[in-house]
Amino acid sequence: MLIQESFKTALISLSANKTRTFLTLLGVVIGVFAVVSLVAIGKGAQNYITKEFDALGSNLLFVSPGSGDFAGDPALQLTKNPLEEKHIKLIQNYANEHIVAISPYYVIGETAEYKTKNFFAEITGVNVESIKMFNYNVTQGREFTTVEEKNSSKVAIVGPQIQKELFENVNPLDKLIKIGGDSYKVIGVFEEKGDNYDDQIIVPYTSAENTFKLENYSSIIAKVDSTENVKISMKQVELALLRDLDEESFAVLSQEDILNTIQETLGIVTLGISLIAGISLLVGGIGIMNIMLVSVTERIKEIGLRKALGATPIQIGV
């Protein structure tokens, strides 16, 4: 009976002070929302990054120009890009113990056109081996061949986003799209891999060189036979490239290295969000304490009267 009476008294008090009740609930909601959002954002970002790396492939090494410091100026690193075909040959000759595939890698942002439609795509120039290296599954058409690569043939494999934006319900195979002033024939479509891949147009790296007048690779990518051999292969590749380059002009990174760098950046962002959430909780808590203090102050006479009549703290509700 006492519980029912206390509950009834609480409802009457809440109804009598609707604005105060609303503000109290708002403080609680903001605090809880801040904490829940922090956890959700952090977990979601981690899952997204892991998914993107899984889609990329496994046991991959990346040779990039510059020091490999992602916090540096990317434009400055690209202007000092020394990576050429001879460096792939150095890796093949002196670091091929555990490497099962290697490819030049060009990436260019360019508008692709088909008739009256256009779409800003990521043009990826690679060799024949890279299609399987990156786990691209061509569901329509075919992959380009070694002969097409050697002849710098203007052929392309498009992602599902390109198919949707340029062709809609039209079969894209054997259609001509214009990239960088040249016409490329679509020979294949790969299945969905994720937001960072579906807007790609994959072409032979030799074709990309001719179309965009490229001389230095954006990077060199190699696949190692097993996870256990990634570290030793990184060292072998580094020693091979040091035969021609100085150590400041390139960096050899594994997927784990890149993932750790991104996770460190994500940690800083999470810390910032945590501070915001902490401030929200503090402000909300102060507001709630202030409202509770006012509520108790207003009930001083009521509480005094109840105590004089012999009511216990539980019966009073304080």
UniProtKB/TrEMBL annotation:
**Database matches in InterPro entries:** ABC3_permease_C (IPR003838), MacB_PCD (IPR025857), Macrolide_Exporter_MacB (IPR050250)
Q: Residue ranges of the ABC3 transporter permease C-terminal domain?
A: 275-316
The UniProt entry's coiled-coil ranges are none
Q: Which GO terms describe its molecular function?
A: transmembrane transporter activity
Where found, per UniProt?
Cell membrane
Its predominant location is: membrane
Segments spanning the bilayer are 21-41, 266-296
Residue stretches making up the MacB-like periplasmic core domain? 21-237
Question: What GO CC annotations are associated with the protein?
Answer: plasma membrane
Superkingdom of this protein's organism: Bacteria
* Keywords from the UniProt entry: Cell membrane, Membrane, Transmembrane, Transmembrane helix
Q: How does it sit in the membrane?
A: Multi-pass membrane protein
Q: Provide the family line.
A: Belongs to the ABC-4 integral membrane protein family.
Protein name, UniProt field: ABC transporter permease
**From which source organism is this entry?**
candidate division WWE3 bacterium
